[in-house]
């Protein structure tokens, strides 16, 4: 076995020991079930750890991650996670969290072929196309990149609101609010993009305000 693999096995043992030292019933309590208030839809980037960013403990955040935190209506993985979170776990918040410096978003700004991921990035390119006039008017490349990251998050929140799962939850009077954040890799702080949607009425109002 490689030294790295041995290290992560050893780290697991140390983590278990540390957790039990602070609470002898730690794992027994976790095994009883989960009632997280939050579903996190984030990027697969290893530098964006959902639990750590919000200071949450295991059991407090249900997580789905993919390249560039996308909500694609044909993605059965994402839809299955969303359905379970909303209809079984009864989460009260769904958060789409993107991050500045996102490689997927950056790739969607260019025309280079990367491989099979090109098919996924096609969805991100569609977001650019929707806002191309505004984005192309931004001369500073870094500012344009950061703005695209934010616009992508907002569009994913709106797409999330249009899913049959979220729509049904709202029709049934379920307490469910959608949010959009952008995380700063170089600061650790998040930016609330002010797309907080709790109903179909909110969706229409916020979309008109933000675009």
TrEMBL record:
The reply on keyword Zinc is: yes
EC number, as in UniProt:
4.2.1.1
What domain of life does the UniProt record list for this protein's source?
A: Bacteria
Keywords on record: Lyase, Metal-binding, Zinc
Q: What Gene Ontology biological process does one annotation of this record name?
A: carbon utilization
Recorded catalytic reaction(s): these are: hydrogencarbonate + H(+) = CO2 + H2O
Cofactor binding: number and manner: Binds 1 zinc ion per subunit.
Please tell me where Zn(2+) binds in this chain. 43, 45, 99, 102
Coiled-coil segments: none
Task: Report the PROSITE patterns cross-referenced here.
Answer: PROK_CO2_ANHYDRASE_1 (PS00704)
Names of required cofactors: Zn(2+)
- Among the Pfam families in the record, one is Pro_CA
Q: Which Gene Ontology molecular function entries are recorded, alphabetically?
A: carbonate dehydratase activity; zinc ion binding
Q: Which family does the record claim for this protein?
A: Belongs to the beta-class carbonic anhydrase family.
> What protein name is recorded for this chain?
Carbonic anhydrase 2
């Amino acid at each position: 076995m490689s030294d790295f693999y041995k290290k992560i096995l050893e780290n697991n043992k140390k983590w278990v020991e540390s957790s039990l030292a602070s609470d002898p019933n730690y794992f027994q309590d976790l095994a009883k079930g989960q009632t997280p208030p939050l579903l996190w839809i984030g990027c697969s980037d290893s530098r964006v750890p959902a639990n750590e960013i919000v200071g949450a403990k295991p059991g407090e955040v249900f997580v789905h991650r993919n390249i560039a935190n996308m909500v694609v209506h044909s993605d059965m993985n994402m839809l299955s996670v969303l359905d379970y979170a909303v209809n079984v776990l009864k989460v009260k918040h769904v958060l789409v969290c993107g991050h500045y410096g996102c490689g997927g978003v950056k790739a969607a700004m260019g025309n280079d072929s990367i491989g099979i991921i090109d098919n996924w990035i096609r969805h991100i390119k569609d977001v650019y196309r929707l806002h191309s006039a505004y984005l192309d008017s931004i001369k500073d490349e870094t500012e344009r990149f950061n703005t695209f990251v934010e616009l992508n998050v907002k569009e994913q929140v709106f797409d999330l609101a249009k899913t049959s799962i979220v729509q049904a939850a709202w029709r049934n009077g379920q307490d469910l609010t959608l949010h959009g954040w952008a995380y700063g890799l170089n600061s650790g702080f998040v930016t609330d993009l002010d797309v907080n949607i709790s109903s179909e009425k909110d969706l229409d109002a916020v979309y008109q305000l933000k675009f």
